[in-house]
Design brief:
single chain; about 190 residues; alpha+beta; four-stranded antiparallel beta sheet; 6 helices; 4 strands; globular; PDDEXK-like
């Protein structure tokens, strides 16, 4: 059984890898996604738990300013970030507008005293970004495994988005459709 965790190079900054959608069975993909979004540090566990408490108090995470305020009052160093998106012509389809929160783990949570602070992303609308009108059974199963709110290291976010966009592209292909430019990984990460 292939495993993202063991079939790739493990680095100090987290897990990740390169995969092809046709090499993975649906249940293996779902299991790997679930494993991938599990917290790996005490700080990450605390942040996830605090986000679960804070989201209902911030209109289920829709009120990002309030969510930052609540998380800050819980002791997290948070910052609201907005990707402005836009551009000329077709660039507006590749540079998307999106708001998310960054949190820096306290220095005490770093792996080594000289290690830089690790940055975590809180994206309260994460799952919404991957919903498509027409889907395949495989993609629907994968989508069901994605957390509504992403909380994790920034390097994990990029890997997960790349993976999900690959799966989304496969769903579009299977349905005989072309993946729109705003659904490509580079656009989703813009």
């Amino acid at each position: 059984v292939p495993s993202l965790v063991f079939d790739i190079e493990l680095e100090d900054n987290g897990i990740g890898g390169h995969w092809q959608e046709d090499e993975w069975e649906e249940d293996e993909v779902v299991t790997e996604i679930q494993r991938f979004v599990q917290p790996t540090t005490a700080y990450e566990t605390r942040l996830i738990n605090d986000v679960r408490v804070a989201c209902p108090l911030a209109k289920d995470g829709q009120d990002s300013v309030r969510l930052v305020s609540i998380l800050s009052s819980m002791g997290h160093r948070c910052c609201l970030r907005t990707a402005l998106g836009g551009g000329d012509g077709a660039d507006c389809l590749r540079n998307l507008r999106h708001t998310f929160i960054t949190c820096e783990a306290p220095a005490a949570a770093a792996a080594a005293p000289s290690a830089p602070c690790r940055r975590y992303i809180v994206d309260a609308q994460f799952k919404e970004q991957f919903i498509i009108a027409k889907t395949t059974a495989r993609y629907a199963s994968i989508l069901a495994a994605i957390p509504q709110v992403f909380v994790g290291p920034e390097e994990h976010l990029a890997l997960l988005v790349n993976f999900l966009c690959t799966e989304m592209s496969a769903a579009f292909r299977q349905l005989g459709a072309v993946l729109p430019p705003w659904r490509h990984a580079a656009s989703m990460l813009s």
